[in-house]
Amino acid sequence: MSGTCHLVDLFGRRISYLRLSVTDRCDLRCVYCMAEQMTFLPRKELLTIEELDRLASAFVARGVTRIRITGGEPLVRRGVIDLFASLSRHLSAGALKELTLTTNGTQLARHADDLARLGVRRVNVSLDTLDPERYRALTRRGTLGPVMEGLQAALDAGLKVKLNAVALKGSTEDEIDDLIAFAHGHGMDLTLIETMPLGDTGEDRTDRYLPLTELRRRIEARWSLTDTSERTGGPARYARVAETGGRIGFITPMTHTFCETCNRVRVGATGVLYTCLGQEERMDLRAPLRGSEADVALHAAIDAAIRAKPSGHDFHIDRGGRPALARHMSALGG
Ligand code: SAM
Ligand code: SF4
Predict the structure, then answer these.
(1) CATH number for the domain formed by residue range(s) 17-331
(2) Which of 85, 200, 257, 275 is a good FRET partner for 132, with 20 to 30 A between their CA atoms?
(3) DSSP-assigned letters across all residues of 43-69
(4) Alpha carbon distance 186, 159 (integer Å)
């Protein structure tokens, strides 16, 4: 394979989107994502910033036009701004249409200006609650103040901000009106995500699982929603709120499948390529990356993985609370 043609899988899906995890570490321990005690990868297992750049650039050469940097928490990775700086050359060249990140926002106040300067236009910030005590409980250690400062810094830097909130029974239900008013009051979209059974978190997720159909009924009791056909290239379906003019996105991996139009692949921080969030198919890209300075073997490994991309995932929340996959969401970054 030449390494110059586009990536198209056996189901005719063209791969144009890469989610690249730069670390499995995080300064928080969200209850739906991680266990309280986590064993993280030894640092030497991780790709270096230079290797991450080379790997991402190989995907850009194959027609990937959007890259999202994620984690763990991407902004705790040392040198991550150098990675943005380096990848921004693809934005200037026009090969990359979008370079963005998903963050918990705790370090965003420090980095927002740099990110904006380097060509980042939008950021997703994960925030499930506006209540400081609940925030501490859900993240098992976090403080809400710095996140609020981070949001403000991002908006001040001219970044478009989308809030991501995981739908949780006993929490999102009674805060949803405040979250909508807060997000839309600051010109931010709000996307609601159903919890997915990934990785052992030390808790039974079935207790916390809140279907978005149920949450939407609650939202519609107060707000007037109109479904829109707008898509942002991801799995979210959007509805416009008449009272605020803002949008709410719904990501429903558990109740409805979006696999037919999947255009994405994920690479973990050690350089393993996953072609489906909900399946085990994987391909190590670190060995071909480190094995040769040329990218021939790397492209061959990418091609082999894309040929084996599964048609879709197979999530079920009701497996007695057990995770469908052993790996944590923080291994791949959503
Ligand atoms: N640390 C960053 C953050 O929190 O935004 C990036 C990585 S985090 C794993 C990416 C997204 O995955 C977050 O929006 C988080 O809420 C979501 N997430 C984590 N565990 C999840 C789960 N079990 N089900 C659904 N979403 C999950
Ligand atoms: Fe960290 Fe993000 Fe997982 Fe929360 S969701 S523990 S912030 S990686």
Answers:
(1) 3.20.20.70
(2) 200
(3) GGGSPPHHHHHHHHHHHHHTT--EEEE
(4) 12
140-149, 209-218, 308-317: range with highest mean pLDDT = 140-149
Mutate to test the pocket of ligand 1, among 29, 313, 329 (most ligand atoms within 8 A of CB): 329
The alpha carbon of 209 and the centre of ligand 1 are apart by a number of angstroms equal to: 15
pLDDT in tens, 262-280: 889 999 999 999 988 777 7
- Per DSSP, the three-state class of 201 is coil
- Asked if 61 and 28 touch (Cβ cutoff 8 Å), the reply is no
Judged by DSSP in three states, 90 sits in helix
Look at the pTM and tell me if it is higher than 0.90: yes
Q: Round to whole Å and give the CA distance between 275 and 273.
A: 6
- Residues 76-92: b if buried by 16+ CB within 10 A, e if exposed: bbeebbebbbbbbebbe
pLDDT, the chain, mean = 91
